[in-house]
Write a structure and sequence with these properties.
24 strands, 8-stranded antiparallel sheet, Rossmann fold, Glutamine Phosphoribosylpyrophosphate, subunit 1, domain 1, 18 helices, 6-stranded antiparallel sheet, binds 2-deoxy-2-amino glucitol-6-phosphate, alpha/beta
Length: about 600
C-alpha cells in the first residue's frame, strides 16, 4: 500500500508533489520518489526512508517543470531501497509510472519482456508496467495505456507519464483508491483527499476500470470500453485543518480528542426529533426484510473487527438476532455458509482493506445482502456494498485507529436499536431511554478526556514494562482486546487481552510480581466474577489498574489504582472505557520515544493481503 500523486498545470510540479506526498505518508513511508518533465526529459529522484530523505537529496537542486508524479511506498515486492522506490521507468526513460497495489502476473510479464530485450533495474512488480508501456507504445499514449491494462492482472491505482506526450498524465484504478482534484488551470491526482485539500475541494472519484487523461485545463474520463464517462463533482466538506494536526503533537492525540465531535456527528442526523427513534434513511428496512435473514455476519479486520464484536453484542442483546463475527482474512478462505438469506455487515474505516473488500465481494457473489459501515465516502467498500452507513468521523490519519472505533460503535448501537424497533424486540420506553443516554455520550467522552494526568503518570510508571495484560468479561473483554491492540501497535509493549474467566486456563502462569494488569469491571451481571479474577491476579502480586464506572466504590479496595469513567448504561460504557485505554497506549508510546503516528511495520490502510 502506497500513496501516489500527480500534477499537471502551470506551476512547478515539485511543490504539490512534495506537499501531497507528505499528507499521504500514512499510507506508506519506507521510500519516496518523484518524476518531473523538464521540457526535454523526465528527471526521476528517489530515496529510501521517509519523504524527508528525498527532500534533503533534492534540496538546492529541485526538478523543474510543471508535469510530474510522486510516490510514497510501503514495500510489498522488493525490500525498501532507492532502486525499488517509485517512480519506475522503462529502458528509454520516456515512460514513467507510479503504482499502488500488486501486479499479480508480473513474473510472467517480466520474463516475456526480458526475452524481448528489456532490462530491469528493480525487484518490484511495478516496473513491468513501465516496460510493457514502452513495448506496446506505437505513437498513441492512451491506446498504449489501455493495452497495458488489458495485460496486467491484480489490483492497482496507476499514474502514467510520458516524454512522448508531455501535456498530460493518464491515470486509472482497480481495487485501490484514486481521486482527481479539479483546479483552475491545473489538476491534481492523489490516492486520498488530504493530499489535495489545500489546493482544491472539488474532486472526481475514479471508479474501477475508468481511465482519465488529465491535462491542465481538461479531464477526459472513459470507461473500460473507451466510452466517455460523465462524472459528478464530489465536493469535499472537510476543511484543510481537518486533515492537519490542529496543534496536537500527533494525529493520534488529535483524533482521540476529536471523539466527542466525531460521535456527535455520527449520531446527530440519525435521531428523530422527539428523541425516541433511530432514523436510518440509508436503509429503510422492514420487518419482512429483517425476517428474511437467517444469518448475520460481521466481518472486518483489526480495530474494526473489535468494533464488530461489540456490534454483535448490541444486535443480539437488543434485536435478538444471532450474529457471527469473523476477521476478514479468515472468513474469506473458510468457505462460509453464505446465501441470499445472509446479511453481511463489513466494517472498515478506510473502506479499502483488501481482505474485507474480498469478503464483501465473495459474499455478494453468493447472494448475500451487504451493508458497509465505513468512514471514507466513495471508498471501494462503500461502492461495492448494497447499502452503506457512513461514520462521518472525518479523516483519520494516525495508523492507530481511535475515532473510527468509537463512531463504529455508535453506528452499531443505533443499528441494533433500529432493528429492535422494527422487530419490536424492545419496548418504546427502553429505546427512548437508551437514545437519551446515547445523546449524553459526547459530553461524557469529553469528561473522560479531561482527566488525563493520572493516565500520563501510569504511562510513565509502567511504560517500560515488557508485558501488560488486559482482562474483562462480556463487553469489557471486547474493549480489553481493543486496548491491548492499541498498546502493542504504537508502544511495541507485548500486550494481551484475556476474557477474565479464561485466565486460570493457562495465562495465569504468566502473572508474576509487578506485571501490570488492566482490569475492566463495568458489567454488572459479571461484576462479582470479575472481582474474583482480579483477586486471583492480585494474589500473584500483579499491579492492577482497574477501570470502573463512577459510583463504583468497591473496585478500589482490590486494585492498586482506579480510573473512573462517567456512569451510563452498561451497553454504552465501552464508548467511555476505551478512551483511557487509547490515552494509556498513546502516553506509553511517548514515554518509550516511539513514532506514534507511524509505528514500525504498519500502515494505515492495508490494501494488500
Ligand atoms: C487499528 O489501530 C489498526 N491500525 C488496524 O487494526 C485497522 O483497524 C485495520 O487495518 C482495519 O482497517 P480499516 O478499518 O480501514 O478496514
Amino acid at each position: 500500500m502506497c500513496g501516489i500523486v500527480g500534477y499537471v498545470g502551470d506551476k512547478q510540479a515539485v511543490g504539490f508533489l512534495l506537499e501531497g506526498l507528505s499528507k499521504l505518508e500514512y499510507r506508506g513511508y519506507d521510500s519516496a520518489g518523484i518524476a518531473v518533465y523538464d521540457g526535454a526529459s523526465i528527471r526521476v529522484e528517489k530515496s529510501v526512508g521517509r519523504l524527508a530523505s528525498l527532500e534533503e537529496k533534492i534540496e538546492g537542486n529541485m526538478p523543474k517543470g510543471s508535469l510530474g508524479i510522486g510516490h510514497t511506498r510501503w514495500a510489498t515486492h522488493g525490500r525498501p531501497s532507492d532502486r525499488n522506490a517509485h517512480p519506475h521507468t522503462d529502458c528509454t526513460g520516456d515512460f514513467v509510472v507510479v503504482h499502488n497495489g500488486i501486479i499479480e502476473n508480473y513474473l510472467a510479464l517480466k520474463e516475456e519482456l526480458i526475452e524481448q530485450g528489456h532490462s530491469f533495474k528493480s525487484e518490484t512488480d511495478t516496473e513491468v508496467v513501465a516496460h510493457l508501456l514502452e513495448e506496446v507504445y506505437h505513437g498513441d499514449f492512451e491506446a498504449a495505456v489501455r493495452e497495458v491494462l488489458r495485460r496486467v492482472e491484480g489490483s492497482y491505482s496507476l499514474v502514467f507519464m510520458s516524454r512522448q506526450q508531455p501535456d498530460c498524465l493518464i491515470c486509472t484504478k482497480k481495487d485501490n483508491p484514486l481521486i482527481i482534484g479539479l483546479g483552475d488551470g491545473e489538476n491534481f491526482i492523489a490516492s486520498d483527499i488530504p493530499a489535495i485539500i489545500q489546493r482544491t475541494r472539488r474532486t472526481f472519484i475514479l471508479n474501477d476500470g475508468e481511465v482519465a487523461v488529465v491535462r491542465k485545463d481538461s479531464i477526459a474520463i472513459t470507461n473500460r470500453l473507451g466510452e466517455p464517462v460523465t462524472k459528478k463533482v464530489f465536493e469535499v466538506n472537510w476543511n484543510a485543518e481537518a486533515a492537519e494536526k490542529g496543534g496536537y503533537e500527533h494525529f493520534m492525540l488529535k483524533e482521540i480528542n476529536e471523539q466527542p465531535k466525531a460521535v456527535r456527528d455520527t449520531m446527530s442526523q440519525r435521531i428523530s426529533k422527539d428523541g425516541n427513534s433511530v432514523l436510518m434513511e440509508e436503509l429503510k428496512w422492514t420487518k419482512e426484510y429483517l425476517n428474511s435473514f437467517n444469518k448475520v455476519y460481521i466481518v472486518a479486520c483489526g480495530t474494526a473487527y473489535h468494533a464488530g464484536l461489540v456490534g454483535k453484542f448490541y444486535i443480539e442483546k437488543l434485536a435478538r438476532i444471532i450474529v457471527e463475527v469473523d476477521v476478514a482474512s479468515e472468513f474469506r478462505y473458510r468457505n462460509p455458509i453464505v446465501d441470499e438469506n445472509t446479511l453481511l455487515i463489513v466494517v472498515s474505516q478506510s473502506g479499502e482493506t483488501s481482505d474485507t473488500l474480498a469478503a464483501l465481494k465473495e459474499s455478494r457473489r453468493l447472494g448475500a445482502k451487504t451493508l458497509a459501515i465505513t468512514n471514507v465516502v466513495g471508498s471501494s467498500i462503500a461502492r461495492e456494498a448494497d447499502q452503506v452507513l457512513y461514520t462521518w468521523a472525518g479523516p483519520e490519519i494516525a495508523v492507530a485507529s481511535t475515532k473510527a472505533y468509537t463512531t463504529q460503535l455508535i453506528l452499531f448501537f443505533m443499528l441494533a436499536l433500529y432493528m429492535a424497533e422494527i422487530k419490536e424486540s424492545q419496548t418504546r420506553e427502553r429505546i427512548g431511554q437508551l437514545i437519551g443516554m446515547l445523546k449524553n455520550i459526547p459530553a461524557q467522552i469529553s469528561e473522560t478526556l479531561s482527566d488525563v494526568e493520572p493516565i500520563k503518570t501510569f504511562a510513565r510508571k509502567y511504560g517500560f514494562n515488557e508485558d501488560v495484560f488486559y482482562i474483562g468479561r462480556s463487553l469489557d473483554y471486547d474493549v480489553a482486546l481493543e486496548g491491548s491492540l492499541k498498546l502493542k501497535e504504537i508502544s511495541y509493549i507485548h500486550a494481551e487481552a484475556y476474557a477474565a474467566g479464561e485466565l486460570k486456563h493457562g495465562t495465569l502462569a504468566l502473572i508474576v510480581e509487578g506485571v501490570p494488569v488492566i482490569a475492566l469491571a463495568t458489567q454488572k451481571s459479571v461484576y462479582e466474577k470479575t472481582l474474583s479474577n482480579i483477586k486471583e491476579v492480585k494474589a500473584r502480586d500483579a499491579v492492577v489498574i482497574g477501570i470502573a464506572a463512577e459510583g463504583d466504590d468497591e473496585l478500589q479496595k482490590y486494585v492498586d489504582h482506579v480510573i473512573k469513567v462517567p456512569e451510563t448504561d452498561e451497553l454504552l460504557i465501552p464508548l467511555l472505557t476505551v478512551v483511557p485505554l487509547q490515552l494509556l497506549a498513546y502516553y506509553a508510546a511517548i514515554t518509550r520515544g516511539c513514532d506514534v503516528d507511524k509505528p514500525r511495520n504498519l500502515a494505515k490502510s492495508v490494501t494488500v493481503e
